[in-house]
Design a protein that fits this description.
Helix content: 55-70%
Strand content: 5-15%
Oligomer: single chain
Shape: elongated
Radius of gyration: 21 Å
Structural class: mainly alpha
Number of domains: 2
Number of strands: 2
């Protein structure tokens, strides 16, 4: 009887969560992992197809296990410029990388803007913004475009 209650509870939870998830098919327990494995050789194309089918943003569940799905299994994939601006600029503080991300990518990214949070990120963003003005980019890239024969000017 306990097993029936657990299976029924899981099934009800799975039906509820899979109703609002868009993107690749989500399987019981396995989530969207079978699709990721199946499409591993054409991952970028597959993600692009899912983004097109969902209007530029979707949320899926890697592992459809209660309590794990809400904490670590939900993945949001977007290519919508408004969403990207919201996550990377407007409300960056809502999307912390956290110590796990920072330790995994420390060797590659150090403590730079792509691997920092909070005040450190804000300081680095303000510093970088001084270097990425239109005047600076024009001065740096126009000679390169002329040298390589491109007719593109900033």
């Amino acid at each position: 009887m306990l097993l029936v209650a657990i299976v029924t509870g899981y099934w009800l939870w799975f039906k509820r969560i899979s109703r609002w998830l868009k993107g690749p098919r989500v399987w019981p327990l396995l989530g969207s992992l079978p699709g990721l494995i199946e499409q591993r050789d054409r991952m970028h194309e597959w993600i692009t197809e899912n983004l097109r089918a969902c209007g530029g943003t979707y949320q899926t569940c890697i592992f459809a296990v209660p309590f794990l799905a809400k904490k670590q299994g939900l993945v949001t994939v977007t290519c919508d410029p408004k969403n990207l601006e919201h996550m990377l600029k407007t409300r960056f503080d809502n999307y912390p990388k956290g110590p796990t991300w920072q330790s995994v990518f420390h060797d590659l990214l150090g403590q730079g803007i792509f691997n920092s949070d909070g005040d450190t990120w804000l300081f680095q963003r303000k510093t970088a913004a001084l270097e990425f003005t239109t005047r600076y980019l024009t001065a740096r890239f126009n000679p390169l475009s002329e040298f390589h024969g491109f007719n593109y000017y900033i």
